[in-house]
Design brief:
Blueprint: H1 14-31, H2 38-45, H3 49-56, H4 59-70, H5 83-91, H6 96-115, H7 117-144, H8 158-173, H9 179-194
Length: 200
């Protein structure tokens, strides 16, 4: 029996791709992950459902890639010459309004991840692991510069600290994450845990 060739993904323009991702994020904010359908995305973007499946394979991959596309550039591209500068620069890439919208979106998706193993897998492969790898490069530069000891026990928990602060701000303080909150948190918690000076 002859092998069936894998379906080839047709090329779409970057502009069209960005339009599709923006529509997915809008729908996620409106109805949540569970109620989001490929039919709704197709209707919103005037696409065929077949095109969406051919390009992304399914809803989990499409959603994970839309979230990834919405991020303001590569984490590893930020290089100010100091870890404190890098972390503050990463925080300043989104204004407070965008941060609030994204925090609300991520809260809904975190709940959906627990009930959808396919979404969890897509998030790990397309979002979490690439971002962790980029972030490790930022931290490794700080180690190479001598800012952080290579055997610092806090090294493995930097991302946990930052994501935790972002995700729990609303839960604990009933306020959205803001640039001011996150930069204060970085200076009060993250950098001291790593043994890094909080003054320039």
């Amino acid at each position: 029996m002859a092998e069936v060739a894998a379906p080839r993904r047709s090329r779409i323009t970057p502009e069209r791709e960005a339009e599709l991702y923006a529509a997915v994020l809008d729908l996620l904010r409106e109805v949540g992950y569970d109620a989001l359908t490929m039919d709704a995305v197709a209707a919103r973007t005037r696409s065929s459902k077949a095109t969406l499946y051919r390009q992304w394979g399914g809803k989990p991959e499409l959603v994970a890639k839309a979230i990834r596309h919405n991020k303001p550039g590569s984490i590893a591209d930020v290089d100010t010459g100091s870890l404190r500068g890098d972390l503050h620069a990463l925080t300043s890439r989104e204004d407070d309004c965008s941060m609030q919208q994204n925090a609300a979106l991520m809260r809904g998706l975190f709940m959906a991840v627990h009930a959808n193993p396919d979404l969890l897998q897509a998030f790990k492969e397309l979002l979490i692991e690439p971002e962790m790898e980029e972030f490790r490069r930022v931290v490794q530069r700080a180690v190479d510069r001598g800012e952080i000891r290579a055997d610092s026990p806090a090294l493995d928990f930097v991302m946990h600290m930052l994501v935790g602060a972002f995700a729990t701000r609303t839960l604990i303080d009933d306020q959205p994450p803001t640039q001011a909150f996150l930069t204060s948190y970085i200076d009060a918690v993250v950098l001291p845990a790593l043994g890094v000076s909080t003054t320039d």
